[in-house]
Write a structure and sequence with these properties.
11 helices, 3-stranded antiparallel sheet, 10 strands, homodimer, 6-stranded parallel sheet, Rossmann fold
Chain lengths: ~290, ~290
């Protein structure tokens, strides 16, 4: 496995392979790789001739009050996981290489970024949209894979790739969960034992919401109230949002007709957790799509 | 010469050629081609194996009060010029193909877009930056050529290509002028005979400014005053700005040290004219760079 730190080098590598007809896959990450990333890398490996994992803790998607400086960076372990999974190139740019002096261009996807995580983290999605556009410019992948765990991010990436005709196929893979349902996240390591015990209530709340829809309860306010009650069984869990939304626009749905995404964000102490579930009533029985 | 209207078709064409090692050039235009465009196309033809001219009157770079609906669209003449100059593909997308329902992604280059044309036309450069990014996504050129006439636009495109690592070489070619110095522009056809007679005062003002710098007068306020006096010889010419600026950042310079760009915009009746001159004191004698 090659470790490449210079954007220019990986572009040269990629352009050479593209001319040879080789298909290139990219899994963009901030490192601290867990089994969710592993499943993305594994799926990419099966579909692409050459596979790049980027590891870049992107400063522009953190706010000043967030955990940029303490974000976990277990680079040796990350590289080992990439090697195990047959990654060809680990792309590890530095922040000054990505954002040299005078950098100012910003990509925004305003309607998708407005609500939910965008409210809690006002500049987050501009940072994400810009760095993803730049990573695609540098790596020139045919296919890029994202986890459904960051549902709004995945929707935003799909939208910007389509809008700017970037010509990268976007694949969104199911969230990988711990046995008790907690969605895997690099930030789960921050949870204390007590917090970890109640953390699965978020996914349980979303499951409860899904079961209601399956059972024919389609009024969003009723569903949202039940989800909230589930989370608030633990007094130190604070709901930021629990919402029934259109899966494409992410706008709130008053009533579920066919497809919906249940989006949730909670705080436990200083830790934020997010999760989501897709529900599709069209298929006779409800099932997770995408 | 092929005429292609579908973005997807030109991407397929371009990707096939790229795999064969063919270099692709792009001259993005809004049509109404004049000798300024012709010089860009000619220069591109000499440097690229395959040459695309895009003709798209981009609605998002016009404000509501501007001339979108009346902008000249002499498509038959434009295609003839392209054929004469050996263009391979005329890319003529429709607005709905470029901006389908739900389109929302926006590219901004805030520091470069803030002043000058950005003040007069607040959303103009977001429209330009977004459509150029998208055209590059669709056409995948190795090289794209722009006229120096739209100096701020060219600076913005250079910046965004660098910032987003789009991997397109940007070439900015000298402004082509009428015999009396008026910079060629698709909007010059709007000038009445009287307006056309005084229009060259803008380029004369910039020349006067350049001569002062060559002669050692380096104080921006003095230079700007002289340029303004030159333009205001014609009572119906109204100065929007005449400024001595840093050629990269476009920030105003109090004093010329080595390089400068003189930027000007004037109104005659309802017509706006812009023009610019580069000055370089480093080369012993002043000369135009780039």
């Amino acid at each position: 496995m090659k470790i490449i730190r210079t954007p220019h080098s990986i572009t040269v590598w990629s352009e050479r392979l593209r001319r040879e007809g080789v298909t290139i896959g990219l899994v963009p990450t901030m490192g601290a790789l867990h089994d969710g990333h592993r499943s993305l890398i594994h799926a990419a490996r099966l579909q692409c001739d050459a596979l790049v994992v980027s590891i870049f803790v992107n400063p522009t998607q953190f706010s000043q009050t967030e955990d940029l400086s303490t974000y976990p960076r277990p680079i040796t372990r990350d590289r080992a996981l990439c090697r195990e999974e047959g990654v060809d190139v680990c792309f590890e740019p530095t922040a000054p290489a990505m954002y040299p002096d005078g950098f100012q261009t910003t990509v925004t996807v305003p309607a998708i970024a407005r609500r939910w995580e965008g409210t809690a983290r006002p500049h987050h999605f501009a940072g994400v949209a810009t760095v993803v556009t730049k990573l695609f410019g540098i790596v020139r992948p045919h296919l890029a894979l994202f986890g459904q765990k960051d549902y709004q991010q995945a929707a935003l990436v799909r939208r910007l790739v389509h809008d700017l005709s970037l010509g990268v196929a976007i694949q969104v893979r199911p969230t990988v969960r711990e046995r008790d349902g907690l969605a895997m996240s690099s930030r789960n390591v921050y949870l204390s034992a007590d917090e970890r015990r109640v953390a699965p209530l978020l996914s349980q709340a979303l499951q409860a919401g899904k079961q209601m829809i399956v059972g024919g309860i389609l009024d969003a306010a009723t569903i949202e109230q039940r989800m909230r009650q589930t989370v608030e069984q633990a007094p130190d869990m604070h709901v930021e949002y629990l919402a029934v939304c259109d899966p494409d626009s992410l706008e709130p749905l008053p009533v579920v007709v066919t497809r919906a995404v249940l989006l949730g964000a909670v705080r436990i102490g200083s830790i934020r957790l997010i999760d989501n579930l897709l529900v599709n009533r069209q298929a006779g029985k409800s099932r997770t799509t995408r």
